[in-house]
Design brief:
7 strands; two-stranded antiparallel ribbon; Beta-lactamase; 264 residues; single chain; globular
C-alpha cells in the first residue's frame, strides 16, 4: 500500500495518489521536528540545538530526536511530553492532516504525503510566512548532507545535476498482542526528497505500509520491498518529468543489523 505527492514548480506538474491517507511516520517526522525547531527559534539555533538537529537529520539519530521533541513539548507530564510547539508549526504550515503522538512515541505520529509535500514546498520556496530564508537554507543543507547509506528512496532516478535533499523513515511494528492485527510485524517505509539547483524545484513524498514479511523469511525482506516500491515510483516520475536527464542511482543500503531496533 502506498501514497504519494509530487510537484514540480517550473512546469506546474503535480501528481498525487491517496495523499491524505495517514501513515506511521517513523523518521520522516524528523523533517517536521526540524521545521518546528527553526520556526520556534526564528531560524537561529544554539550550538547545542544545531548539533542535535544535524545528528537527527544527517544520521537519523533517535536520541537527538527525542531531546528536540521534548524541547518543543509541554513537560507537565514528563512521561507524556505534549509537543505543543510542533503543533504550532503544523498549524502555521497548514499541515492539518498530521497528528502528533501525544504519548511521546514520535515515530508513531500520523503523517500524509500531502502534508509532507507542503513541508518540502516551505523548505524549497521563497515565502517567508512560515520560515525565513536562513531557516529554509539550513533545513535543505542538512537534508542534502544525509549520509549516503540513508539517501535511498525518493532520490532514485532524480537528475544527477540537481541538488538532492532527502529524509527517509522506516519502522517495523512489533508482533506484540497489544498491536493492532493489521500492524503486527508490518514494515512502514517512507521517503521524502526535494530537488533544487539550476532550474530544478520539485518535491516527492512516497509513504508505504503493508510491506509484509512471509512466514519464515528474513525480516529485511519487508524493508526491501518498501524501498523497491518507493524507488519504482520515484524513477517513473523523474523519467517522465525530466526525460533525458542522467538518473541518480542511490544504491541499496544495508538492512538493519540483526538484534538492532528495526526503526530509523
Amino acid at each position: 500500500m502506498a501514497s504519494l505527492s509530487f510537484y514540480d514548480r517550473p512546469s506546474g506538474t503535480r501528481c498525487t495518489l491517496d495523499a491524505s491517507k495517514q501513515y506511521d511516520s517513523a523518521s520522516a517526522v524528523k523533517a517536521v521536528i526540524l521545521g518546528a525547531l527553526l520556526h520556534q527559534k526564528g531560524g537561529t539555533l544554539t550550538a547545542k540545538e544545531d548539533a542535535l538537529a544535524r545528528k537527527m537529520i544527517t544520521e537519523s539519530d533517535n536520541d537527538s530526536t527525542t531531546t528536540l521533541w521534548k524541547e518543543l513539548s509541554d513537560l507537565q507530564d514528563p512521561k507524556k511530553p505534549n509537543p505543543v510547539r510542533i503543533q504550532e508549526f503544523l498549524d502555521k504550515a497548514g499541515m492539518g492532516n498530521t497528528v502528533l503522538d501525544k504519548e511521546g512515541s514520535w515515530g508513531l505520529t500520523q503523517v500524509t504525503a500531502g502534508d509532507l509535500a507542503k513541508l518540502l514546498r516551505i523548505f524549497s520556496g521563497s515565502d517567508d510566512s512560515v520560515l525565513g530564508g536562513k531557516a529554509r537554507t539550513y533545513a535543505l543543507d542538512l537534508m542534502h548532507h544525509v549520509r549516503s547509506t540513508q539517501s535511498w528512496g525518493a532520490t532514485a532516478g532524480a537528475p544527477l545535476d540537481s541538488l538532492i535533499h532527502v529524509k527517509n523513515g522506516w519502522l517495523q511494528r512489533s508482533r506484540n498482542p497489544d498491536v493492532d492485527a493489521f500492524d503486527r510485524g508490518d514494515w512502514k517505509v517512507n521517503s521524502l526528497a526535494a530537488l533544487t539547483g539550476k532550474a530544478y524545484n520539485s518535491g516527492l513524498v512516497v509513504l508505504t505500509e503493508n510491506n509484509r514479511v512471509p512466514e519464515g523469511r528474513p525480516a529485511e525482506e519487508g524493508w526491501n520491498y518498501g524501498i523497491d516500491t518507493i524507488e519504482a515510483v520515484s524513477r517513473a516520475i523523474y523519467r517522465d518529468v525530466y526525460p533525458g536527464a542522467e538518473p541518480n542511482d542511490p544504491g541499496r543500503p544495508a538492512p538493519p543489523a540483526a538484534g538492532q531496533p528495526a526503526a530509523g
